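This part of the workshop introduces the protein records we will be handling. Backbone structure tokens are a discrete shorthand for how the chain folds in space. Once this layout is familiar, the rest of the handout is easier to follow. The record below serves as our worked example for the rest of this section.
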Amino acid sequence: MSFMRIIIGLTFMLLAITVRGQNLFANPGFEDINNCVEYHADCAPEAWFNIPATNFLVKGRMAPKPVLGNMVLLVPVSSVLPGFRNKRRFVYTLLACPLQRDIEYALSFFIHTGGRLFEKLDFYFTDTEPTLGSFNVSGRSPSFSITPADIDDDYKMGWKHVKRVFKAEKGMRYCVIGNFSSLDAEIGMKESMNSSGDIFYFLDEMVLKPVNALPVCSGYAENIKLAYAQNFRHSDDVKVIRDTVPLKKLRVVTDTIAIPAVFFNVDSDEMAPGIFPVLDSAITRIISGNVTKIEVYGHTDSTGSPKRNRELSMLRAGAVKKYLSDRMPQFPGQWLVEGRAHLFPVAGNATEAGRRRNRRVEIILTTLSYQ
């Protein structure tokens, strides 16, 4: 065991005793899990939010064992699908205390890349809470990027320890983590970490604190409570800190359009003519309404091989997305496309009737309105 590894281990024992009150990240080990009010089920680490809002799945063989505890944070950084590599997604959290101008802070955490070469991970601090409708990382310059130069130890089992000291700007209340620009290394299809083609970096045990000790801000406990209280983990524009004077109430409505597999040729993503009136009707609904997000999920029954089920479900979802997007090139909202194979059945696979119901493509439209 290296000397640095011993130091890191001792540091964690000390953190548990002395630094807990100073860490500006709530739920830094991601062990506290939020129960989503929309689904009445555990969905994501408390105080950490995905934009666009989704629950990321990852292949078991690619999920690393956590450094401590049972949970890690998944940060999407790219995709094996060329059309999705520039779709910027990110994770953010509310800091327990705002950063103070010209004060030096130390950021440290563990990172695992699932066997990929580590290139960079972007951090951005802002005083405005990011939402799907208000924040776009594309073309935005990060506050700084974590690079291989910031790695101070190869810890164990593929985990690396990162430390970065930076000088803050005043009033920054939120930390955004993601990938603001494309990775340089060539990406092969075999590197896909789930059925949707996503590539993740995994983070654990995050610490952000002043280099020189400062008094804990008066709102420390209240800010953590606010972050934990935001339980709409699948609502892209629901904020941790709401507007001081809310003039209107935000209403989030989802509408699901289920397309049976009978509208596709057998074992193919080639669409049969009967599907086009259904898709054209969906386009009319999208254009005439205030749709902010379109999710397209492909599903199969369980009769094929897992690999073919993943491929076919993604191909069919992609074909539907292409038809819609080709006819709505100016759609301002967010797309989310996934092939979910046979993992989300709506009926049993023991009968043909059940298998027929499971073979489908679902289009989920999210609409925001104010009352």
The two ends are 60 Å apart (CA to CA). Residues 12-21 have pLDDT under 50 and may be disordered.
